[in-house]
Every structure is written in structure tokens, then in C-alpha cells.
Amino acid sequence: MAVDRTKEHIKWLEETYKVEATDIIDKKLYQHGGTRQSKRKTEYIEYANKIAKERGIPSYDPDHIALELEIGVPLGQRYLEPVKISGTDVFCEYEDLHMLNNAAIQQMIDDIFRTAIVCLDLPHRVLIDRYGFEVTPESINRYLETINHTMVGGAVAQEHMCELHPGLCPDGYVKVFTGDDDVANSLDKRFVIDINREFPEEKAAKLKEGVKRSLWQVSRIPTHALRSMDGGMVHRWNAMGQTMAFISSYHLCAGEAAISDFAYAAKHAQYIWMGTPPFISKARGHNSIVGLPIGYIFDIIQHESAMPEDPIPVSSEGLAMESVLFFQLYYGQMMIGTVGATVAPATFYVNDLYESRGYYLTDWIRKKYGEFASAPMNWDTIHDCAEEATMHCLEEYDIYPLLPEHHWGLIHAIQISISASACAAWATGNSMAAALAAHHSMTLIQKESILRTGWGGQESTHHPAMAIMTSVLLDEGLPVELTGLNVPFRSPFADSQHFTSHGIVAAHEARMDAWALSPVVKVAFADPHLVFNFRRVKETIAKGALREFEPAGERDIIRPAR
Amino acid sequence: MKDFQIPYPGDDPVVNKRKEWLSSRYEPRKIREISDEDIVRLLGHRKPGTAYSSVHPPLDELKEARDPIKELVEPTPGAKAGDRIRYIQFADSRHLAPLPPWMRFRMYGVRLRGFDSLAYSGRTLLEQRERDLDRTAKFLLETEIFDPARVALRSITVHGFSLRLDEDGLMFDARRRYRLNKETGEVEYTKTQQSVPLEQRISVGKPMDEEDLKQIATIYRFGMVSPRDSEELLKVMKRVGELRVLGGLRPDLVDGR
User: Fold this and answer.
1) In A, residues 414-453, which contact B (CB 8 Å cutoff)?
2) What is the model's pLDDT at position B212?
3) Do the domains A28-78 and A300-517 sit in the same CATH topology, yes or no?
4) Which alpha helices (H) appear in A18-168, and where do they start and end?
């Protein structure tokens, strides 16, 4: 490998560090300006001083702690590099990509887990078979108007109800979709997610075939409600709003025996969870990242495909979302907290690195196998992909010392495994091949090439993974798309999920699939009214970094004006 | 300790160096002298000349339940005396530190008794009974295992192994525990591994020459011996990977392979 400064990620590194990527010496080390070289840290220090003065209790104060009390590490002795969010022109600091500093990242998580998806076929059958009613486009439209009132805390059955201020939940609403164009066209367009409009023709046809003639309802529980409680209330909130809407719009008797069928339909019968309940030590309700089946990631992202030429744009969007969900939210915040898992999660969607390495690998795949998703699913392919991706990355880390500095410690190991995962996924179109390539890269190739992997214990999940991930016993593994953090060996560490889910996104994109795990989830997230833009994951995160993203769930309307 | 050699696949300069470290017969080159007192100062667990703290009476004075393992395993001097367990931790730069964490970890396994260790991405923790640790620390600091520029003694703020080097060629340390004395050309520690200031500077010798570091390197590296060229090692890794998967899925599939 020769030095190549035209590589996108090397170019951005040189531009942000303002030195040559091949230099092994940092002449200004220890003289980069401390915390004050960072606009964000400076802002935080000044703000924290104000807080400390007002409340009389010290707060964030890195310079005082490190330089005056001589406790801890003096920050900013190395260069605190800005980063460019991949695929955008937005530069920011890593602080802007901490999920609690970035409203867009928070909204991405909220929008996924405040979603309740339920099939209306059963309640409609109850209305037809048990009540002898007619269900018509008009009655469905009437129901939809009603549920859009009840879903945001509007009363329909009686007085003495405390209703919600609509200003607290403008993001709460209900829509429907179906694979039957005639039914979809007969409904009030304000309430319909139009598959034909949201997807290219070929994918729309596949999705309609998957959704079939069923009518699916998507309820967006207000972000404010989700944040005040947690994902465990989503199906209950939906059931209350839905059942009351059925009772009212079809003039039923509140409390009659048949009403239980509506409640059952709304909560259980054909209800799609965005996550099953976590295992006991991570106990929360349903709709938490722990229980999210990883196959849903490909279904949630909506970026336009560039296949058959290029699997990278969609894969890259998936990687950004996976990094946020598994690495930052789950590992960084739910398991660790405070500073979280360092800057690691953000490195996967900055400086166009994934894309730049990806284009090297897609060229290699074309030369070796021809088309994407065409390589045979066998050991030779898995090993060849794992080796090529791993070696290519290792060579880059050797040639450009700026790169390992940017990807300190743990991150280089996962970055390499992600590349191995993507390479095998694009070559074979098989998510299992991707996962095995990633594990092979970490446990054997990386470890024996450079005698290091990642954080202590990090690789420990990769070793059992080799042996048990092809199993479908419930305590060990599942078909890859159905796995998630609730599978024991996947739960403890930062990267135990990351590249497995990435392999799914990359493989299904290489196969030009319309969905990975559920056509219903795919359509549910094609809704243009969602607050977070799932068509533009990185761009929306970038808006959050610039503080230009308007989130939902704000309480401004009920607090004193400032 | 009985002589032994842990097998390792391949035959190239990198693998052959690894094989040396995986042999109990290999004697690392001693390249500097650091006094026992200075070793104790650098470790920072007690003051030189003070007695070891103990966590239990000497084993000879203890009445313990019969345990056949105790008859098989000779206790280390520290265990015999009842010393507390203390640590030493090294950060090894990715820029040619002689023994990266996993090599260091494996080398400990070949050479030490009565220890616990953990290999991270950039650092390796070692815990032993205190008097055993003093002896081990001397071995680790005085031999070719320790390059003053690319290896550092750190119990906290270990970050830095993957960063570029400073203008003197030293690995980054946000706690500035060591500096190059430009007059003597030697690296001097001004703080303990915990980053507590020392009363006097302790020299740990001159940094090794870049070419020497390449000669004793145990990693594959572009521009030296590329991992792409480690044919036999790659072949063995493929076999290990396949057998792990097959063994977990259906052990009968492993038969005959």
C-alpha cells in the first residue's frame, strides 16, 4: 500500500489536524492549548461556573480539578480534533455527538421507541362478525379522526378527564397503511402512509406483497409521554387511545364484553413491539434498545438505495444508527453513563472513513466475485473477505499514524471488524457470513497480527460468538436478524452487537431487499411526519450537532417564560 | 520451573521472535540497572526500606484445611509471607513497543507464578504478592521488554499508546510522568506509576534505537513483515475459526477435519 492522500478519510484527517497523516511526531504535543482549544469545553466551563455560583455547589470544572487540585487528567494536552460528519459538510466537536448534547440523536431513539404498530384486521373482524357492523372507508376515516384526538390525551367517553395540552404533544398522531391500493386510495390521505409514494416502484411492489391486504395502524405516542415514563407504556397508551376511539367512533358500549377484544387487539394480538422486555438486570419495559431485534435497523432506515452499483450509502446510514443505538445509547449510557463510551460511537460516522474504506472493498469485491451478493457462502469467502478488510485497515493504521491517534484504543479494533463485516455482507448478501467474518477478524486475524484487540474483555464476546452464533437455541443465538442485546453473550460489551447488525444492513442492501425483518416496520418508518428524518440519518444528526434540530417533547409551553 | 516451549505456527522473523518469548529458556537481554529502592519508588506502593504489609500470617503459621492442591503447588515467597497483592501496569505504544499487550500477557504466563493479568488494547495489568512483584518489576524494567520511549509505567491515565509520539520520540502521557533529559539522553521519571511526584528523578535509561526496536518487534507491520505474508499463521487461524464454529453448531461436523 502506498501513501495516498487523495483518500477521503486521510484528506479530512489532514485537514482537521492540519498536519501530514504520515507524521509520527506531534511537535506541539502538550502545547495544544488545554481545554480552551475546544469551543464546547470552554462554553461548558463558563456555563458550569454560572451554575455553581447560583446554586452554591461546585459543578463541572476540569481545569480546577486537574490543574489546581492536581486530581485527574489535564484535558486538551493532545489536539482535540474537530470532525466532519460523513456525507455532509458539517464540522463539529465530539461533544456535539454525545447523545445527551444532541437533540437529533435523542429524537431518533424516541421516534423508534414511541412507535406502536398494530394490525386493525382483528378489531375490524370483531366489528363485522361479533357486532354485525359494516366497516367502510367512511367508518375507518371517522375512527382515524377520533384516534388522532384520543392518542394525544383527548377525552371521548366522559367528563372529569384531565386532558393534555396539545402543545406538549404535536408529534402524537396515528396513520395507517395497507398493501391493497384500492383500500389505501379509499381512505383519507391525511392518515395514510402511501407505499407507492414513499418507495421506488419495485420496492413498493415487494412491500405491498409483504404487507398484503391487512390494514396496519402506526401510532406515534408523544415524545413527552415516552420521556416521562419509558417504552413499557407505549402499547398501553396506544391501547387506551385505540380502544376509546373504537368505542366512540362505532358507538359501542364501554365495558361490554366484546370491548376486551379491542383491548386485546390493541396490546397483544397483532401488535408489533419495537423491542421485547430486557433481561432482569437491565429491567425496563418493552420498547427499549435491549429488546430491539437487530434486523429492524435495515427496516427503520429509509435512505435511497444506490444499488446495484453501490451498497455503501444505505450501509453507511445503518452504521450511523447502529453506532448510536448499540454503542452510545446501550453501552455508553445505559450501561456506563456520564461520559459514556468515549468518542468511540461517533467515529463510525465521521470523516467519511467508512465510505472511503468501503469503496476500496467494493472494488475488491467486484474484481474478485463480480456482482454484489454473488459470492458463494462458504469458508473461503468468509476468510478472504475478513482477511482483505482486516489487512487493508491494518496497513492504513501503520502508514498513517494520525489514524490510530484518531481511532485510539478500542475503536480501531471495532472499525476493522466493521469493515470485515461489511465486506463479507456485500460479497455474499448473507448476514451470517458478515458476522462470522467480523468475529474471525477480531479473535484471530487482528489479535495474532498486532497482538492487541480492544478494551479488556472486549474480545471475550467474539470467542463464544464463533461457537454459538450459528445455533438457534434461544439462550445462544437466533437467526441473525432476530438477535439483539437480549441474547446473553451479546449484551455485556460495547461492540458485541454493532457489527452483527451492520452485517445485516449491508447484506440486505447488497441483495437489494425491500426489507430485512418486517415489511410492516419498513413502511411504518417511511412516514414523512416523523420528527427525526430516517431518510437522512447522518444529516439529521449533523443538524443536531449544529443545534439546528427542533426536537419534540419540549415543555416550554408549561414553564415560566425566560 | 520446568523448561517448556508454547507452540506457535509459522517461520518468519516475527513468529520466531514470538516463539522466543513463549519459551521458558529464552533469557531477555538485560540493558540497564535500576536500584531496588528506585523500583520500589516507581511502583509507589510503599517507601523503600519499609516492611511489606501482610494480609494474613505466614503460611507456616496458618492452620489450614487439607487441600491436595497446596501440596502440589509450591507457594511463591510473597504468598508464603502473607504479603498483600499489589500491581504494576505497562502501557505499550503501538509504534513498536517490544511486547504489545497480548504478547506481554502470554510472556507473563510463561515466566511468572502466582500472578493475575489482563491485556487491554494498550496496557497490561499485572498483580502479584508484593515481594514477588518487586522482583518481577525489576526484571520487566531492566530488560529489553522495557523501552523507555515506547513503554511506560502507568497505573492510571493509561491513554496514549496509539497517539503520535512527542518531539523527543516519547509516548504521550497526559500525566507527564517522564521526560527526556536532553543532556544525558536518558528518560527520567518524575512521578510514580500512580502519578504521585517523586522526591528525586529516576532514570530508566536511553530509548532504544528505531532499528533495534524493529529487530525485536513481535508484531506484523506494513513496511516490516506484513501480516499478509504470514501464510502458515493465517492458515492455522482459518482452521481454528472453522473448527470453533463447527464445534459449537454440531460437534460431529468436526470429525475427521
Assistant:
1) 436, 439-440, 443-445, 447-453
2) 95
3) no
4) 39-55, 62-63, 103-113, 121-125, 137-150
Cα separation of A108 and A540, whole Å?
A: 9
Cα A526–Cα A207–Cα A269 angle in degrees, nearest 5: 85
CB contact under 8 A, A26 and B165: yes
Cα dist. A210→A168, A179, A180, A318, A528 in Å?
36, 8, 11, 22, 21
Q: Say whether A471 and B103 touch across the interface (CB within 8 A).
A: no
Contacts of A26 in chain B (CB under 8 A): 163-167, 172
The torsion defined by the Cα of B54, B59, B65 and B67, in degrees rounded to 10, comes to 110
Q: Please give the share of chain A, as a percent, with pLDDT higher than 70.
A: 98
To the question of domain A300-517 being in CATH 1.10.3210.10, the answer is no
Cα dihedral A449, A450, A451, A455 sign: negative
Complex ipTM:
0.95
| Share above pLDDT 90 across residues of chain A, in percent, rounded to a whole number | 80
Q: Rounded to whole angstroms, how far apart are CA atoms A302 and A524?
A: 10
Q: How confident is the model at residue A449 (pLDDT cuts 50, 70, 90)?
A: very high
Domain A115-272 in CATH 3.40.1190.10? The answer is no
**CATH class for domain A28-78?**
alpha beta
Q: Give one DSSP letter per residue of A356-377, joined into a string.
A: HHHHHHHHHHHHHHSSTT-S-S
A47: contact with B, CB 8 A cutoff? no
Domain residue limits, chain B: 13-221, 226-257
Q: How far is CA A78 from CA A405, B2, B161, B163, in A?
A: 10, 47, 13, 9
Q: Cα separations (Å) of B25 from A86, B4, B19?
A: 52, 7, 11
Cα B153 from chain centroid?
A: 10
> What is the per-residue pLDDT across A215-259, written as a single tens digit (0 to 9) for each?
999 999 999 999 999 899 999 999 999 999 999 999 998 888 889
Residues 6+ apart with CB under 8 A from A263: A239, A243
Cα A414 from Cα A36, distance rounded (Å) = 31
Q: Do B166 and A30 touch (CB under 8 A)?
A: yes
Q: Which of B122, B164, B230 is nearest residue A401 as measured by Cβ atoms?
A: B164
- By Cβ distance, the residue of B100, B102, B163 closest to A78 is B163
pLDDT by residue (tens digit) across B36-52? 999 999 999 999 999 99
Quick one: B13-221 is in which CATH superfamily? Answer: Methyl-coenzyme M reductase, gamma subunit (3.90.320.20)
Q: What single-letter DSSP state applies at residue B209?
A: P
- Contact check, Cβ <8 Å, B121/A455: yes
What is the DSSP secondary structure assignment for residue A517, as one 8-state letter?
S
DSSP, collapsed to helix, strand or coil, labels residue A399 as helix
pLDDT of residue A5: 84
Question: Is residue A539 within 8 Å of residue A88, measured between CB atoms?
Answer: yes
Q: Count of A–B CB contacts within 8 Å?
A: 148
In chain B, which residue's Cα lies nearest the Cα of A466? Answer: B245
Nearest CB to B247: which of A395, A447, A467? A467
Q: How far apart are the C-alpha atoms of A45 and A65, rounded to whole Å?
A: 12
Q: Which of A29, A436, A468 sits opposite B166 (nearest CB)?
A: A29
Q: Which of residues A463 and B166 earns the better pLDDT score? A: B166
SS (H, E, C) A232-285: HHHHHHHHHHHHHHHHHHCCCCCCCCCHHHHHHHHHHHCEECCCCCCCHHHCCC
Show Cβ contacts of residue A192 under 8 Å, excluding neighbours closer than 6 positions. Answer: A175, A176, A177, A184
Indicate yes or no: CB of B218 within 8 angstroms of CB of A455: no
Which whole-number Å values give the CA distances from B187 to A6, B146, B208, in the listed order?
A: 38, 12, 11
| Structural contact between residues B193 and B88, judged by C-beta atoms closer than 8 angstroms | yes
